[in-house]
Each structure stands twice: as C-alpha cells, then as structure tokens.
Write a structure and sequence with these properties.
Blueprint lengths: L2 E5 L2 E5 L7 H6 L1 H22 L4 H21 L4 H13 L1 H12 L2 H16 L8 H10 L1 H14 L7 E6 L2 H13 L4 E6 L6 H15 L3 E7 L2 H4 L5 H6 L4 E5 L18 E4 L3 E5 L21 E6 L2 H12 L8 H5 L26 H12 L15 H12 L2
Length: about 400
C-alpha cells in the first residue's frame, strides 16, 4: 500500500516497497559524493607526483617530523591501542603516516563540534542537577552503585532517578505498537532522534500519527542522522517534512569533502512524549527492525519504554543535540514537567549519553564497573561486538571468579 501526504505543491510518498532505477543510481547523491571524493584523491596523488623530484629532502624532513609526532603521541592521553597503531603507521610510512595523522587530528569541523557540545553541557548543567534525597537513599542501599552514579553525573552530567517504570521489548514488532499507542496520547510535544529512518510501513505509520498530532497543535520535532542522505532519504527531506508542519533537522549531512568530520554520526534512538514517556534501544525507524523487510534474516533488536522522572534526561539529551548549532531554547518548558507518583516504580534508572569527542570513555567504564561488580551473571546482547583488551580481561576475569 502507498500512502500520500500532501501539503500545497509538496508531496511525500511513503512506500512499502520500491525499486530504484539505474538512472537514480547513476545520478543519485551517493554516486556524486563518491565521484567528487575520487577527484580529491586524484588531485592529492598528482601533488605527490609533482613533488617527487624533491623526494630526498621531503622524506628527510618528514622522517624528522615523524619522530616528533611519535613523541607527541606517547605523551598524549588516549587509548594505548590507538596510540600504538598511529606510531606503527608513522614509523613505517613517515611521509604518508605523518600527513594522515595531521589530517585526522587537525580537523576544524570536529573541534568545533566538540566545543559546541561542551558549551551546551555547561549551559544546561542547571537542568541536570542531582536530587540529593534520591542519591542518599541509593547510597544507603548500595554504596558501590551510588559511587558509579556519582561518576556518571560528574563526567557526563546526568543524574540518577527513582519514580520511573521501565518496560522491556524483546523485539521491534512489539515496541512499534506500543510507540503508536503512546504517540496517540501526546498533548504537548513529541521529540524524535534516530540514526536510520527509511520510508516504508514503520515510518509511514509513525509519520501518519505525527502529522495528525501536528495539526492538533502538538509540537513535533524530528531529527535523523545525515548518513540517511546518501541512499535512504532525499537530501531535501527536512524541507519536505517542515512543510508538513513538523520541525525537522538532519544531523551532520554527508558532504563531498575529504574530512574525518564525516565520521561524526548520531547513533542514538530516542522518542520523547510530553516529558513523561520515552523510548530507546537499538530499534531504528525502518522496516527491517520490525521484520517487514528481510535483509539479513530475522532481525533481533531490543528496546525499552520509560515513564516517570527518568524521562527528563532523554528530553535533555534531545534538546542538547537539537541545539548544537543554535543558542536560543526554552529548556524549562520541556524539562520542568509535573509527573505523578508511579506506585509500580521500583529501583533506580540513570539514562546518560557519552560523546566520542572528549577524552572520557564513560560508556566503557560503566560496562567495566558492571562486569567487575557482577556476582552471579552478566548477560550481553549487542549487534556490534568489538572488544578491546580491557573489556576482554574484565570478561575473562569475571568468568574465572565463578
């Protein structure tokens, strides 16, 4: 079934299935970006060829510079495995290695992004203060866990909450129906932030509710990662969505320029409704996540729904990312929400975000603490199992303690 959503002269068509023609592949944005990147690489190769007559002097200079770079790497704070990799590259390939290191480490776009994130964290610090009563209660129950929450608060800026219920969804199909039911209840605002969004059955059903809610006066904001602009969604998709009454942004769109800034992706999956309900997990807004489309066999991803005080951190995470290039936002309007007492709530929740641009590996350290603190079992399910030396040692040590 095809669903058409029209506003004026603009029309967005949500397709369950569609075939891309050969012309779209040849002249699509992905092909153009790839072609322009090849041109830049070709020009770099020509420059190297032109300088070949001065190779002896250039090689000597870069060898000396290579030693300086190695000393700099050794004295820099960072992951030892990454440091060793860079040292090997620089020493084996002095010219290319030094240029590559300088190219990666002097990216203006990444530095600016990191500066904006830190600035936003400072400006919103007052909205993420810890409720001392909750912390002291947790501290009396479990001092070790309280210490972990204190670390996350000081390093990432997110507090621990009680009065929050959590529902687990073992598969995307179950989560979608609950998401739709909760979206229908929205009265004030809806925030969506996703890594992958693709036209189809899942996004079509959600968009249908969003459009209806927007017409009812509910504020709807939708943000997705710019990687979608390569092959999944049209580059001008935000403008089309905006004309339908939904505020829309694309985070870090892919551009035809050689830059490590292209690797700055927003991999989060967050849905916030009226500040009292939030969804997160590994489920994106695409049909393979609910097994309406088969790509790699049966798709298994999980998610959770939170209701209560803990939703505040998800609201803050969304607003921080939304305002990465803006300075005006009425944060209290969305964060200072009166919530009921959830009698069925038990335990504590601590939603948090971690930036890859700073030098603090909050996420990994939290996992390490959980593994080291485990007494009976540790269950892990992830689509991306890339273990560094420290995690391997933590897991094997935990297994040996049985």
């Amino acid at each position: 079934m095809n669903q058409d959503y029209e506003t004026g002269r603009e029309k967005i068509i949500i397709l369950e299935k569609g075939k891309r023609g050969i012309l779209r592949i040849l002249f699509g944005r992905t092909t153009i970006v790839f072609f322009l990147l090849l041109i830049q690489i070709f020009l770099l190769v020509l420059c190297f060829g032109y300088l070949n007559s001065y190779s002896v002097y250039i090689f000597g200079a870069y060898t000396a510079l290579g030693y300086i770079v190695v000393i700099y790497i050794l004295n820099r704070r960072g992951e030892p495995a990454f440091q060793l990799t860079w040292i090997v590259i620089v020493m084996i390939l002095p010219v290319f290695g030094v240029l590559l290191y300088l190219f990666v480490k002097t990216q203006i776009g990444t530095r600016l992004l990191n500066r904006r994130i830190k600035d936003l964290e400072k400006r919103t610090r007052d909205y993420s203060r810890q409720d001392e009563k909750v912390y002291q209660q947790l501290k009396e129950e479990n001092r070790g866990v309280a210490n972990l929450t204190s670390y996350i608060l000081n390093s990432a800026g997110f507090p621990v909450y009680n009065n929050t219920t959590v529902k687990y969804f073992p598969i995307g199909e179950e989560m979608l129906e609950t998401m739709l039911n909760e979206l229908e209840k929205a009265e004030k605002f809806i925030f969506l932030e996703y890594f992958i969004v693709e036209e189809g059955y899942m996004w079509g059903r959600i968009l249908e509710v969003l459009l209806r809610k927007a017409k009812e006066g509910v504020e709807v904001r939708f943000m997705y990662d710019g990687l979608c602009s390569l092959a999944i969604l049209p580059y001008n998709y935000p403008k089309k969505i905006e004309k339908l009454g939904i505020r829309c942004k694309m985070f870090s769109p892919i551009k035809p320029a050689l830059s490590t800034h292209q690797n700055n992706r927003d991999h989060r999956k967050i849905l916030v409704i009226d500040g009292h309900t939030a969804f997160t997990g590994g489920i994106n807004l695409a049909d393979e996540y609910i097994n309406k489309k088969i790509r790699f066999g049966h798709w298994k991803d999980t998610g959770i729904m939170l209701k209560g005080d803990g939703v505040r951190s998800f609201t803050l995470m969304f607003l921080q990312m939304w305002n990465i290039n803006e300075r005006k936002e009425e944060y209290s309007k969305y964060l200072d929400v009166e919530l009921p007492i959830y009698k069925e709530a038990s335990g504590y929740v601590m939603p948090y975000g971690d930036s890859p641009l700073d030098e603090e590996i909050v996420g990994e350290l939290v996992y390490m603490d959980i593994i080291n603190r485990a007494e009976e079992y540790v269950h892990i399910m992830t689509p991306y199992l890339i273990l560094d030396y420290e995690l391997i040692m933590a897991l094997t040590f935990a297994a040996k303690k049985e």
